[in-house]
TrEMBL record:
Its main location: nucleus. This is WD repeat-containing protein 82. Keywords: Nucleus, Repeat, WD repeat. It comes from the Eukaryota. InterPro entries: Swd2/WDR82, WD40/YVTN_repeat-like_dom_sf, WD40_repeat_dom_sf, WD40_rpt. One of its GO terms (biological process) is RNA metabolic process. One of its GO terms (molecular function) is chromatin binding. It comes from Porphyridium purpureum. It is found in: Nucleus. GO terms for cellular component: Set1C/COMPASS complex.
Amino acid sequence: MGPNGPLENTWTVGSVASLKLASVQRAHNDDVVALAVSSDGTRAASVDATGRLDVTDLQTGVSQSSGGSSADRAFMQWAATLGASAICFTHDRQYVLAGGRDGVTRLLHVERGATSREWENSAARAALQRTSYFLRDEIGGPGHGITQLSMGTRDDSFLACDAGGVLGIFDLRTPGRAQMQMDGECSRVEAAFTPEGSVLGVLRGTDANDVYRRMYGTGTVNELLVYDIRRADLAQAGPVSTVAIDAHDASNLRFSASGVLMLLLHDYADPLAQPSELVVYDALDFAVLSRIPISSNHGMNAHNQHTGAAPTRFTCAEFSPECRFAAAGSSNGMLQMFEIEDALQSQTQPRLILSAKKHPLPIRALKFSPWYPVLVTACQNIGIWTPDPSHKPTPQSSNGIFAQVEPEYKSNNLYAGLDGFA
């Protein structure tokens, strides 16, 4: 059941093919680094590279930065001083968790601003005290900013990852230090709870030239650690499974709502020879079920090789709520949606259903509404996509694309000519 009755979010091939950019909010002046949608699907929160936080009403398409009420103005004036680097909604749509560049996560009311509840990734700061000043400067200073926040699926626990490779699990009801904290010998860490809430997946890695590689003498490493979070001695007991990831850089760890699929983005050392991939795994045995290379979807990499531009790569991806589709954003501003479910059942390559280039800048994040057929994308601005009810799907073409939307904007205006936006 949805928040207002029966589930209203049933994505079909027709609704995906007819997606249109219904609203754009020019909410930020720099790249969005984090995006979240509330559990009831009515709000989106975003944070940009300058630390600016904004909240958008998905029902009206109006953000607080453009709102005229005194509460909106007061919230935005306060949020501008926060220095946020990560964001997520709690199970209550009125509250968000905002991770700061100081390694502290704060609970905020979306209208009133700060509350008194804070949590600190203290292990990161302790680790920094053990390193030389040279290494601390190279890592990024004396504080490790929060890079990811995610609520637990069954209770009020949440996880926070920081730029120092530290993962902490906290509880909304007990402000202060972490219930459990892992300080791995790595420079990058992402984590995700499985839908039933009993398993924690931790993706960690070291970059080829980063400080941790020199400190610990390791090469480029990407691995997935699987923990049973029902164990009280989680950090001491270690993972129940460790999976090596065959990529130069793996990111974007996502589990499907059904709990049977896992999604990662793979990047490789030579992107021209081995392009960026969207990879679907079996979430039970972690076998690779499907690989979708970006070069097979459009000819941008050949063009980039000729012009000397950086190869196009996937930048973000999400499963749709019912797990039938996967949406992916890319560094050239392209939004693509693939039909995953039927392809896995028939053991064929996932079919590209939608390819729409409405963002002139890289799509940094995207999220589905849990209850409504709404998709939110972000570059420096927030785009709200909804199916066109008047659309009639065209016959399938030979390359499997149902809908192809070409860009319609001018270089001096980010969103000139977009679906009713001058």
